[in-house]
Amino acid sequence: MNEAGESLSGVSAEDATGKGGLFKKTLAIAIPSFMTQLDGAMFIAALPPIARALGVTPMELSFGVTAFYIAHAILLPACGWLIDRIGAKTGCLFALAAFALFSALTALSSSLAIFVICRFLQGGAAALMLISARNILLAVTDDSNRLNAMTWVSMPMLLAPTLGPPLGGIIVTWFNWRAIFLVNIPVAILAAAMIAILLPSVRSGLLRRFDWAGFLLVGGSLICLISALGMVSNEAPFYRLFAGLLTVGTVLGVAAYRHCERTEHPIFDFSVFRTPTFRMSTIGSGLGARIAFRGLSFVLIIMLQLGLGISVLKAAFIVLAVDAGDLVTKPFVSPAIKRIGYRNALFATSFIGAGGLLFIAIGAGNQPIALLICVLVVIGAARGILFSGTTGLTYVDIRREQHNMSSVVSATSLQLGNALAVAFVSIILLIAGAVTGRAGADPGLAETKIAILALGIVAAISAIGFRSLPKTVTVGRPDVASLK
Fold first, then answer.
1. Could you tell me which CATH number the domain at 1-210 has?
2. Is the domain defined by 269-484 classed in CATH 1.20.1250.20?
3. Which sequence ranges are marked TM in the entry (predicted)?
4. Which of 38, 174, 192, 388 has the most crowded Cβ, counting Cβ within 10 A?
5. What is the pTM of this model?
6. pLDDT (tens digit, 9 = 90+) per residue, 228-262?
């Protein structure tokens, strides 16, 4: 069997495009991602007490974080092949059951080794959940409502990093650290029930042999690159290991590209990058924008605490201003892009965000905190439209038979983009420390302002790149809809 396209079994055409109960469907699709992000945020917040309970240091326990993300990155390409065989809905239900099981095993862990293994397995289940849910979303929406659905799906995911730290603290303080992972079980059951009832069966007609060579090359490259990027902020003794991992990861990546280009059904199809809008959103200006605004989340808390001497609690509430601005704009994303098109919307929000970053870089320390909060709200509002817009742009020219592979490739690009954002800020902070004569010391106000200035420049360059988009690229444009 080798059919192109996706089949939706047992649903009407209206349901297939998401016009019947779209909000309920998007809510069902959003819960798995919300659960995994909340799990990670609660774990990081409760890392010290969990380390004490297991008799290890927090640094040793941080391998649990690394294991989760490495498994997530390695298994993303394989998830596309698996979903082709068993269907997106079945894959999502299986992943939810696996995530709940591995969460229970994580809660029962009595040693660091078992804990890290269980977190690795959780990361693999999370990867399958992500790709399955995204494929279902693409199948139950069309060009006219896909951006709106993606915007609503992103809202619970924004709340997870905000709710995670206080919830993790409450659970550890009033209950037991094991409850952090046991909470996933009822949430997974709720998500599975909603998906089973509300969502159609989505199955690709393509059955292909598993590309073991491509899997090993792509997986090896991702392990090395993500591990290397995570080491950027370490001290000099780790630089040789960083350089070695970066070199090996790059060589494996080139080998993976050559292999996948020659293979009829590769595990990772680089051909989707030939679509200009997909390329723009994943490795072009979209990637630059994500580096700029994800990087801000990393450096902002450092600037507030170490640069301005603001308490941890107060700094956390100030950072919430970015998320508040992001949430406020969500209902306006789809109408705005329908009205002015992707090019104008993405250019304007990148430019506004860049202006906000430059304003902070120039005036931080000489401005009232209230003004800083207002600027952060504006940056968050720009980020909200920008991130939702680039996500919608990813699929605007992608044919239906490419949905599965494009989901895998874009999710992998997103993982690398998040790692690049932290690495970029770390490199700028190290360079700034050398320039200001504070090499080796904790970054202060001067160093963090230089880093934010660099992020502003990246955002401005991204804005210029978005200007190259054709004016005709918009939500539900007829010439794209005809390709589906």
1. 1.20.1250.20
2. yes
3. 27-51, 63-83, 95-117, 123-140, 152-175, 181-200, 212-232, 238-257, 298-322, 342-362, 369-396, 416-438, 450-469
4. 388
5. 0.78
6. 877 765 555 467 788 899 999 999 999 999 999 89
